[in-house]
Design goal:
Chain lengths: ~110, ~180
């Protein structure tokens, strides 16, 4: 097999792969502030692989707990504390210390 | 007519809330509080709910009551810490006053009533009291303490506490509702 017969498909693969990478938007970080006993924004749409950063701006401790309580949960976030999570699937969440505080992440 | 009834009920609840909190001062015909007295009343009101929580943690075996009590103790301690830090920054020494004294006297009676109960009767009495106490404190902070406060930072602190008190009230009502269905 001549060299160009091997190199050509490899080059094609590299080029198409490269263009696919270029078209895919880079993953983003979205900020959700916990302020005055609310998640803000309380509804967030993200792409798979995006990061959601939760920042507690209240004086009291909060957390971020997936609604079923079985999937994921942040550690307690004291005042000015933060926690981040890579979004893979859509989820509803709440603060386990203050269950009236609720939010959703929609992964599209 | 319905609007009038709603307004009257709201006014009555508000009056009762403020009255429960500052009855002695109002009865003396001198509702004026200095910032040092407002700070004292705010710290006292928070400490009282920490004391109620301590009784709950001693007496209750109900997980949701215990978790609620732990949150009350932590949150109200965080408010006290902020208030103390602010008064130190402002060189204000919280000053005992008729409102603080009335709050303490009323709380002693409530604590006695709570200590006399046990089991489910205690859990119900504690949560019912949390609903009543937070309703009263929210009205008093909004309609007595905030208007009486002159210093902008102290006023801001009191205003920032209101959403936490409202979340506590809603949480207590959620537990109250669950208990009534059991």
């Amino acid at each position: 097999m001549s060299m160009h017969k091997v190199l050509f498909p490899c080059a094609l693969l590299l080029l198409t792969g490269f263009s696919t990478l270029q078209e895919r938007p880079a993953s983003k970080t979205h900020r959700v502030e916990i302020v005055q006993m609310k998640f803000s924004p309380s509804s967030l749409s993200v792409r798979p692989g995006d990061t959601v950063l939760f920042v507690n701006l209240d004086m009291v401790t909060h957390d971020v707990t997936e609604a079923s309580g079985k999937s994921w949960k942040s550690p307690p976030l004291a005042a000015k504390g933060s926690w981040k999570k890579v979004a893979k699937t859509s989820a509803s969440y709440y603060c386990s210390f203050h269950p009236v505080m609720k939010g959703t992440i929609t992964v599209k | 007519m319905k609007r009038f009834e709603k307004f009257t009920m709201k006014t009555a609840a508000l009056f009762l809330g403020v009255f429960a909190f500052g009855s002695t001062v109002l009865a003396q015909g001198n509702p004026t509080l200095s910032d040092a007295e407002v700070a004292s009343a705010a710290v006292t009101a928070n400490q009282i709910d920490i004391d109620f929580a301590a009784i709950a943690r001693e007496k209750s075996k109900d997980t949701q009551v215990l978790e609620f009590a732990r949150t009350m103790a932590n949150d109200h301690q965080a408010v006290i810490d902020q208030a103390v830090a602010l008064t130190e920054k402002l060189s204000v020494t919280p000053k005992d006053n008729a409102v603080s004294q009335q709050l303490k006297a009323d709380a002693e009676k409530t604590k006695e009533q709570l200590r006399a109960k046990s089991g489910k009767a205690f859990d119900k009495a504690y949560i019912d009291n949390e609903v009543a106490y937070h309703t009263s404190v929210i009205a008093a902070v909004k309609d007595l303490l905030i208007p009486e406060t002159e210093n902008a930072e102290l006023k801001d602190l009191l205003m920032s506490v209101v959403p936490a008190l409202e979340a506590h009230l809603e949480h207590a009502k959620m537990i109250q509702q669950k208990m009534s269905k059991k």
